[in-house]
Design a protein that fits this description.
Layout: H1 2-17, H2 22-50, E1 57-61, H3 68-72, E2 75-78, E3 85-88, H4 93-105, E4 111-113, H5 116-133, H6 139-147, H7 151-158, E5 162-176, E6 182-194, E7 199-211, H8 215-235
Parallel strand pairs: 1-4, 1-5
Antiparallel strand pairs: 2-3, 3-5, 5-6, 6-7
Helix pairs in contact: 1-2, 4-8, 5-6
């Protein structure tokens, strides 16, 4: 771009030499060339500032909470006769969705993720400490204690800038018992917690219904849309 402008300006200066007002036109021509080159350099500098790479952020994706109905009922039948559907649910859907979202987040070039594997060891260590301190309680009590800890406390302890978490409102596969068609449906609320402000800075709900697809595929599609939304809001660095 700078080269084209420079050659254009230089051409004007050269043509000015052959004019009858030679000396005056030469000075004007070279003045125009100097101004155009300076403007081009300034524009180039502004462009570089606008496209500068964002600062790397360190994030962690926590397991998503799930409704009690998902945790307790893997299989149920809804409807009657020819309209009956078999509903399949995964008690580990919150963990599976977090893994799918973490995988999609690798598309963000300027984002450093806390390892999901390390996170699982970290959470297991916290659970073990609760079991040692409050012995003899049902497993559900320990799960509730862990869920009541603020995402900000987890984020500060893990040394990240942001915590991504939320809850699965719906997550199931529905199969028609008569004509054997099926679809998978996912509805999820996503939150981003910022450690500097110690609060949730982003909250959105996403929905996906995929015909003839598994829950895993529906989760991946939702996760992809979440990553695009996060990139527009915070990062703007999605890899193609």
């Amino acid at each position: 771009m700078i080269g084209c402008i420079f050659h254009f300006a230089l051409g004007r200066a050269t043509r000015a030499v052959s004019s009858k007002h030679g000396r005056t036109r030469i000075r004007r021509g070279f003045a125009v060339a100097a101004v155009l080159v300076a403007l081009a350099a300034l524009a180039s500098g502004c462009s570089r500032l606008e496209t500068a790479a964002p600062l790397t952020r360190r994030v962690v994706v926590m397991d998503f909470r799930i409704p009690r109905s998902v945790a307790e009922k893997e299989f149920q039948i809804k409807g009657w006769w020819f309209g009956a559907h078999t509903i399949f649910q995964n008690p580990r859907a919150g963990e599976v969705f977090a893994d799918a979202l973490a995988l999609q987040l690798h598309r963000l070039e300027y984002l450093e993720q806390h390892s999901r594997t390390d996170l699982k060891f970290y959470m297991e260590g916290n659970r073990q400490r609760l079991q040692d301190r409050f012995k003899g309680r049902p497993d559900g009590d320990y799960d509730r204690m862990l869920s009541e800890i603020s995402p900000v406390d987890y984020g500060l302890d893990l040394g990240v800038d942001q915590v991504i978490t939320g809850r699965l409102i719906e997550c199931f596969t529905s199969q028609h018992r008569t004509i054997q068609t099926w679809y998978s449906q996912v509805k999820v609320e996503v939150q981003v917690w910022d450690m500097k402000s110690a609060r949730a800075v982003w909250n959105r709900t996403f929905f996906e219904r995929s015909r003839f697809a598994s829950q895993s595929i529906a989760m991946q599609r939702v996760a992809g849309r979440i990553v695009k939304a996060l990139d527009r809001k915070f990062y703007r660095a999605v890899k193609p």
